[in-house]
Amino acid sequence: MPESQLILNTLxxxxxxxxxxxxxxxxxxxxxxxxxxxxxxxxxxGKSICYQLPALLLPxxxxxxxxxxxxxxxxxxxxxxxxxxxxxxxxxxxxxEQQEIFQDIANLAIKILYVAPESLHFLEGLLSEIxxxxxxxxxxxxxxAWGHDFRPAYTQLGYLKKQFPKTPIIALTATADKATxxxxxxxxxxxxxxLHLASFDRKNLALxxxxxxxxxxxxxxxxxxxPFQSGIIYCLSRKTTEAxxxxxxxxxxxxxxxxxxxxxxxxxxxxxxxxxxxIQIVCATIAFGMGIDKSNVRWVIHYNLPxxxxxxxxxxxxxxxxxxxxxxxxxxxxxxxxxxxxFADMSGNKEIQLAKLxxxxxxxxxxxxxxxxxxxxxxxxxxxxxGNCDVCNNPPTIIDGTTLAQKALSCVTRIKEQEPIGTVxxxxxxxxxxxxxxxxxxxxxxxxxxxxxxxxxxxQYIIQLINQGYLEIAFHQNNKLKLTALSKKVLxxxxxxxxxxxxxxxxxxxxxxNT
Length: 515
Ligand code: ADP
Ligand code: ZN
Prior knowledge:
Strand order of the largest sheet: 3-4-2-5-6-1-7
Bound molecules: adenosine-5'-diphosphate, zinc ion
Structural class: alpha/beta
Radius of gyration: 27 Å
Shape: elongated
Number of helices: 22
């Protein structure tokens, strides 16, 4: 292993930094020891140096597998500007360009070679002739169907360890739950890889979730105390990004839309203007942000519910990279949930997608510290509540809601799960309207057993029961309320139910139905 002074000098000389961040040193040392490594570090944590620095001190070439073809040129240009001999090979190049790079490689004029997994075959002949000192696999979660960004081309990377058994592999990702982690190591044939798990806690990001009604007005208010502060609004559809950008511009903000349907040059321009602060707000689909290095993004809004927690965390992670306090705001509406369920239904791995969406929903509907939920998703447990999320700032008082729950659930049972929330409440409160009378609900045992509770309060309680999984809404059957496996526990097995006290509800901000 090179001496630690040499390592530090290299850090200073090529990257301009005086010291390592958390974990970087131990990762780099493990690389020099020839170990395989799995690095899980949040976006902006400083993963690149973990292979770029060893690359400079190792005798041969470091091969970097990366899916981000669009960013390769920028990455390589950045390295070259720092005096590092780097190149890339991908499908955007013509044969002459590739030949030139092959020549440089053969002449040992390259230390770091970026290659897209689809383009690895171009290197076939060459790889057996040159010395490869290190193989870095960036965005390693792409190998796993468990990850949120599966790329089939990644699945063939398992052969690398077989072909180069002595070359250490370093796999890096910002987003991997336990299942994904194991899958990455299995598929890359690095079962003994050393795991380096950086903390995902970004304490400077304030977390907030609000019901998604009148979103545009909420956004104006949200922005009113953030003059000229850079931010990103993530939307589900391209159309929304454009409509939103237009509204914001009409309101006097400087905003631009960004999505994969906008032509390349225009997109690059938006990105450029955002980075140098001449556009304040980018309304974007998830296409925006991969690899963007802007440290002073002060806020991120999710106009729509993201489809999973990995994506959500990565997107809010683009705020506050400079460590200064930054705000995040997620709008939650059931209309989005329905839309995302449809997408999941159509996708190849439907069960996984639905399960992940469920976790996202639970996060949005949580009555306990949101950061705890986020971090536990990544396998990290924090002892105390965070104090920097909306639930921590306005914790609900919890009451024993068992009787309430029993009343609501037995009412749903008696009306044979055939009615939406409104009618269930009418029956509970003993209303005498047309539906109740037509269906003869006034003869049910549960008719009127909830008279003592106001209509609106019942609505809020039932939403809480839905959030906790005691009831569910059948979106494909006119929003009828249905029992779940959990409801039976309450009805027949004496399970206790905790609910948030309603006086607190203004603060707890329940999601809205039908927006
Ligand atoms: P990741 O790949 O994990 O998203 P990067 O490698 O792009 O993160 O690093 C994020 C930012 O942090 C970059 O601007 C990088 O130059 C900076 N950085 C990385 N390591 C250090 C360090 N030891 N000291 C200061 N800044 C660093
Ligand atoms: Zn909290």
